[in-house]
Write a structure and sequence with these properties.
The chain is mainly α. It contains 11 helices and no strands.
Length: about 250
């Protein structure tokens, strides 16, 4: 596969992982309206993952095999999504950062084609709505002294985990001046603009995104939280591995 297809495949994996992690909050969160919103965002992340897998040329059989039977060592999610959130402020921080990165990456991948690609246009439009959703929660949690410290801590920690975020899109060994540099600048500028919009000194001090291509992504291992998540996903196939569901078509 060419570089764009490799990047699309890796980013699809990130979207799939985050979408499934997000889905657990549909029932765990107590507010019905928020549960519905989380369910919608989770569904859109999974739809974006499928669209990118298709864009990379993966057939229905290949997608099914990748999700249900490929070794977890073949999955290398970004650190930002590899550790599912266990408290709401941390999920807000994670979702806020990831949705902004999704917008930047979709814009970048779309720009690599000579013709307009509606897949990336749709991703940008829908992930922009996700950014707005998480932005509202960032502002609300910062305004409550009971949740403010947790959110600031989560933002700081999650920002520190972004060193491998763009690595599949901009491999360190092939980072070029020009378009690639523009993506790095776009990611940083996008986040800084959002931080300034919040207008909170603590958020501004939480820092800038890490270099974004310096970290090496690590595979999922048996003891990871994501291994348990995949165990639940794959349970449907455990008794009849020969069945193919094509639920990601």
């Amino acid at each position: 596969m060419n570089a764009t297809k490799l990047a699309a495949t890796a980013w699809a994996d990130d979207l799939f992982v985050f979408g499934h992690s997000l889905s657990s909050w549909i029932t765990d969160y107590v507010d019905m309206e928020e549960s519905l919103a989380v369910g919608s965002m989770s569904q859109e992340c999974l739809a974006h993952a499928v669209a990118l897998w298709k864009r990379a040329g993966m057939s229905a059989e290949e997608r099914d095999r990748h999700v249900f039977t490929d070794p977890l060592s073949d999955w290398h999610p970004a650190a930002l999504v590899a550790e599912p959130a266990t408290i709401w402020p941390d999920l807000v921080a994670q979702g806020w950062l990831f949705s902004q990165a999704c917008c930047c990456v979709a814009e970048y991948l779309g720009s690599q084609n000579d013709q307009t690609d509606s897949v990336f246009d749709v991703m940008v439009a829908e992930q922009t709505l996700h950014v707005r959703h998480w932005q509202r929660w960032v502002e609300m949690l910062l305004g409550d002294q009971r949740t403010r410290p947790e959110l600031v801590e989560s933002l700081t920690n999650r920002l520190a985990s972004t060193s491998d975020l763009l690595q599949p899109v901009l491999p360190a060994e092939s980072v070029r001046q020009g378009a690639d540099e523009n993506l790095l600048n776009s990611w940083s500028a996008h986040l800084r603009e959002a931080q300034m919009r919040i207008g909170d000194a603590a958020v501004a001090r939480s820092g800038a995104p890490a270099a974004a291509v310096d970290g090496a992504r690590r595979p999922i291992s048996d003891g990871d939280a994501l291994a348990r998540l995949f165990g639940r996903i794959r349970e449907v196939r455990s008794k009849h591995p020969e069945w193919r569901y094509e639920i990601y078509d």
